[in-house]
Amino acid sequence: MREPRRAQVVVLVLFGLLLIFPHLPFVPFSLVGVTIQAAQMSIVTASLVMLTGWVGQISVGHAALVGVGAYSTGWAVSAWHMPFPVNLFVAGSLAAAVAAVLGGVALRVRGLYLAVATLIFSWMVDAFLVRIEWFVRHSQIDPIVVGDPDGVPRFDFSSRPTMFYISWGIAILVLFIVSNLRDSGTGRAFFAIRGSEIGAASLGVDVTRYKLLAFTFSGFLAGVAGSMIMLDSRSLSPDQFQFTTSLFYLSVVVVGGLTSLGGGVVSAILFAGLNEVFFRVRALGDALDLVSALMLAVVLLAYRSGLAAVPDSLRRLADWVGGPLSGSRAHGAFGSGIHAVRAAVRSGRRDASRLMRLVLQPFQRTTTAAYEVRQPVLLDGPALDATRPDATDRLDQVGIRLDVAAQGDPVGDSQEAALPASERTNYVSVVLPPERDVRTPLLEAAEITVRFGGLVAVDNVSLSVREHEIVGLIGPNGAGKTTLFNAIAGLNRPTTGTVALFGQDVTALPVHKRAELGVARTFQAIQLFPELDVFDNLLVATHVHNDTGFLRHLAAGAKSLRTETGLRERVASLIDELDMGEIAHRRTRDLPFGVLRQVEVARALVTGFPLIMLDEPASGLDNSETDRLAEMLLTIRARGITLWLIEHDVRMVTSICDYVYVINRGMLIAEGSPNDIKRNSQVIAAYLGKPQVQGKKRDRTSRRRRARV
Amino acid sequence: MVPAYVVYSLSKVGVPLVPAVLLGVVSGGALGWAVERVFVRPLRGESETAQTVGTVAALGLILSVTVRIWGTTPQRAVAVFPTGGIDVGRSSIRYGELGLFVTMIVIAAALYTVFRYSDFGIIIRGTAENRRAASLMGVNPQRVTNAVWMIGGALAGLAGILLAAITNLSPYTLSLQALPAFVAALIGGLGSFPGAVAGGATVGLAFGFVPRMGGLGHMQGAPQFVLACLAIAAMAVRGSGLSGSDIRASR
Fold first, then answer.
1. Would you state the torsion angle of the CA atoms of residues A198, A202, A204, A207, taken in this order, to the nearest 10 degrees?
2. Shared domain check, B197 and B87
3. Cα nearest neighbour of B44 on chain A
4. Which neighbouring-strand residues pair with A445?
5. Distance of CA B235 to CAs A115, A143, A176, A209, Å?
6. Is there a contact between A202 and A521 (Cβ–Cβ < 8 Å)?
7. Confidence class of residue A219 from pLDDT cuts 50, 70 and 90?
8. How many CB atoms lie under 10 A from the CB of residue A500?
9. Which of A105, A246, A493 to probe by mutation at the B interface, max B CB count within 10 Å?
10. Is the distance from CB of A603 to CB of A575 less than 8 angstroms?
11. CATH, range A465-531+587-674
12. Which of A332, A74, A354, A358 is nearest to A226 (CA)?
């Protein structure tokens, strides 16, 4: 753990410098002003990094939200004489409220509506609000009143050093809580939404709620920044919060590296400095807009990861120039210090808890007792030696599953031990599934019909998936499998019919609510989160088990860290168990397709849900990959997890499923055990496209035709 | 916006009106092509966020370059149509407004026809839906994209030239001119002709009536405020209905 310790030192040194900075003899007065601006900008940057970098939502009206904070501070101070930290909170809350309204309107739909709504809001503020007399009146505040209601200033906001400490104090606090957020369940939900909204929803993430949460919190931070701008300058101009300012903020964030808080801070400092330079040096003219737009373009097109990647590039450059130099790693120098220190603390805790490593078991909600009824069975005919390699197959033919543990080991009952050796081999301990009907159904779809306009895609199909079985749904292309699956998973509402999960009617529930009940799924077109590594992808799946809330995540309190450690432990041990250690820290966008399928199944497994639905798990896999997947599914079933899959690989379905439904042209044409299905004439007809009943006739005609040719 | 400025500068150095407008439209097309080449193409296949930031970056860059060259003070643009107007009752319609209206109707009709009935329109729609499938049909999607961006840029340029002629030429207001139209689309709904007319009428009414309502209404910017509120309300009411059909269709 040497690395984090070095980071710790770097952070401490930076912090010390920060403390004495305004009093250093060689620091000019204006430079302190620049750093104050940088602190304010860092807060805006942090809010945008979270919103745009992590959640993928774009606000082009952030300056207007900053304006809301600034003006409400003016109002709070001049009309209510609110003292300092209170007015900051009031400003933040008002901006958050505005953001909540805008977000509530725009975030319910996927896509760029937030950008539209914020653009309109920005236009509204810019063209009208800031010009109203009321706003103009509150655009000035008196430095004396700011400090204290009694007229004795507690904080003298006209003093540069005071303002410096306050600004950076708040900025560091903001960066701290936002970085806490990133490492928490909330932050993961954010990243997951950016990666794949539908994937996130299938793991129980309420996508709309989290987007709204992100934008509201982002609005709060913007309001706080605005409040500080007001306290600092004590007078506002209506042009300060225009659309172009929002673009400028966006440039700062992109140049910083979009997802990186540290890069964002460095970028904020850089731009605050540039701002001052352009202000001082008249010869340069008022070209900051142009420069920031150019930098935005260059970073976006040529150096995507922005300033955040600079240390990395430098390291690579150093490696390239000469090996020994590379020892001096600039780790943590670029603002990721806070995070590095916290990671060090956390990994310490993780080591400690590894001692009491948990054995992975499905979480609380897993199933009741196993259904197996073990009983000795006397087999007819010639004695069956359970140790024979083909024993399992032969039993399988009569519908009995051999208990692996008991293989070759006659049931150790006392009465049986008394039997003569020649007869003993006739007894094997078998796992005898009880009748299908008596087992609890986990999923029941009743009389589902899905119509698209005049087209009936699914016609009155009922099916059930019962505890501890693997159920397959097969059908040729275009049979309506996916439509039925989507109706059951909650992606589209069935026209008529009901869907029940664990005995509860879920027909009207959204995807994430269904997931919360305890059903995980995989997708035919894989919906992993490409920017996250395998470990974090699996970690998102613990979402519903994360019982700590947003505020705890912000503070990174003991409870939140404890939960986090527990969840990480579970994922780590599952990764060990599935032998995925090698790829655990590779981003999923860099992995081949076959592996991604397995990762997605693993992710469904991490949820610990008793039911997993798989949408064409074998599609796109070659034969050996399919076999590996089938094996994986059987192992999962052995953990007591129920599986339902739709598939058109008949071989796979009939080899692993306990019960199979077949649909064709939207209608259920057969159901039963795989062996029944294989023999069913209608099924064969559906797959080969030739009704058997008329087979002879057709044969004759075709032969005749052939003869003529 | 840029084509409007190009026309402005050209006619200032003595280029006659017709070639100036033509060159302006061409510059719009060229700009459209350039934006696609520089900001859209390299980001294809990246995340949606990166693509959107890319177009925002293009807007920012064009805006600030325009400000550098032509400044922020509003200029009087060249009148494309003759000055004067027709009297209708107590008010009058200027020829410029009439010309803009007629031109836009003609262009809209032409676009609709091309989109709907020509091979080229089908190619465009197909490419928009699925680039790979279109390229399998022998279409070069890149060429289609280029063409669409160039046509889009040229038409936007023409609109800018005509719009500037009846208002004035200022980099910020002109780039935000599209907003009322956008609001109209939001209010009326995208993709329905009666809706668009209703939306447009609402926008027009707001600009006409709000200033006469006394109180804060007479303030500059009040119509914008009312419209913005309407637009946000429209988004709230229509919610997923706004784009619901597109989403469902694409799934």
1. 10
2. no
3. A301
4. A463, A499
5. 13, 41, 35, 18
6. yes
7. very high
8. 16
9. A105
10. no
11. 3.40.50.300
12. A74
Q: Residue A377: which pLDDT band, with cuts at 50, 70 and 90?
A: very low
3-state secondary structure A618-665: CCCCCHHHHHHHHHHHHHHHHCCCEEEEEECCHHHHHHHCCEEEEEEC
Q: Which two tokens stand for residue A661?
A: 């439904």
The residue with tokens 């193409």 is B41
Which residue's structure tokens are 């026809």? B113
From the number of C-beta atoms within 10 Å of its C-beta (0-12, 13-18, 19+), residue A408 rates as: exposed
pTM for this prediction? 0.76
CA distance B179 to A111: 19
Q: Comparing A85-99, A180-194, A692-706, which segment has the lowest mean pLDDT?
A: A692-706
| Closest approach of B218 to chain A, Cα-based (Å) | 11
B159 and B189 share one domain: no
Dihedral (Cα; B40, B43, B47, B49), 10-degree rounding: -50
Report residue A41 as tokens: 């900008």
- Residues B70 and B50 occupy one common structural domain: yes
Beta bridge partners of A672: A660
Q: Estimate to the nearest angstrom the gap between the alpha carbon of A161 and the chain centroid.
A: 42
Q: How many CB atoms lie within 10 A of CB B208?
A: 11
Q: Does the beta carbon of B112 lie under 8 angstroms from any beta carbon of chain A?
A: no
Last residue of a domain, one of B152, B169, B186: B169
Cβ contact A112–B50 (<8 Å): no
Q: Do B225 and A60 touch (CB under 8 A)?
A: no
Structurally, chain B folds into a number of domains equal to 2
pLDDT along chain B (251 residues), means of 10: 76 74 83 83 74 80 80 70 66 72 79 78 75 75 82 82 74 64 68 66 73 61 76 70 36 30
Cross-chain Cβ contact A289/B232 below 8 Å: no
Which residues are CB-neighbours of B12 under 8 A, at least 6 positions away?
none
| Half-sphere exposure for B245 (CA within 13 Å, toward CB) | 6
Instruction: Write down the pLDDT at residue A414.
Output: 43
What tokens does A275 get? 């701002």
Tokens encoding A338: 């806070």
Query: Taking Cα atoms as reference points, which of A685, A627, A631 lies closest to residue A651?
Result: A627
Chain A residue nearest residue B224, CA to CA = A124
d(CA A644, CA A485): 10
Domain regions of chain A by residue span: 32-319, 373-432, 465-531+587-674
From A445, A439, A508, A349, select the one nearest A668 (Cα to Cα): A445
Same structural domain for residues B131 and B22? yes
CB neighbours of residue A237 within 10 Å: 9
Tokens representing B214 are: 């006394």
Of B120, B146, B169, the residue at which a domain comes to its end is B169
Spatial distance between the Cα atoms of A204 and A218, rounded to a whole number of angstroms:
23
For residues B89 and B121, state if they share a domain.
yes
CB A578 within 8 Å of CB A571: no
Amino acid at A262: G
Give chain B's length.
Answer: 251
Structural domain including B218 reads: 177-251
B183 & B105 share domain:
no
Residue A383 CA to chain centroid, in angstroms?
55
Both B110 and B147 in a single domain?
A: yes
Can you tell me the distance from the alpha carbon of B96 to that of B89, in angstroms, rounded to the nearest whole number? 18
Q: Check whether residue B161 and residue B240 sit in a common domain.
A: no
Three-state helix/strand/coil letters over A382-450: CCCCCCCCCHHHHHHHCCCEECHHHCCCCCCCHHHHCCCHHHHCCEEEEEECCCHHHCCEEEEEEEEEE
If one counts every other C-beta atom within 10 angstroms of the C-beta of residue A315, the result is 16
CA distance B115 to chain A (A): 25
